Amino acid sequence: xKVLSWFLVVLGVLGLIGIRILEDRLFYDPFLNYFHxxxxxxxxxxxxxGKLIAGHLFRFVLNLFFSCLVIHFWFxxxxxxxxxxxxxxxxxxxxxxxxxxCIYDRFETGYLFSFYMRRFVIQPLILLLIIPMFYYxxxxxxx
Length: 143
Description:
Helices cover 79% and strands 0% of the residues. The chain contains seven helices and no strands.
């Protein structure tokens, strides 16, 4: 059973990596090149609000699924998986409207601020905080 659990953790991580690798083919995001160029002088790309929001929501759902897969099979605790999913969702619900406002404002709030808001929206960065938190919690429960 332990081998299966680690296989599913690796599968979750590979799923997250796959999302990142295939992002330009899976999701509508005209800002990929805008931020990859890392030049403030690049023209603001044209986009469609509906497709952009749907693309980010789809990406969020995929990131959430693979993140929960990692959390669940790493710690084998359903309650922690639910808590992790809730934390990831809360962070998304906070950062996504801020990022949409940055787009609406054409990144006048600041290029770097917009860049990092985008990171929290499209990448499962919160997972890098949840895993050590739950690992520490597991360590405390053993004592």
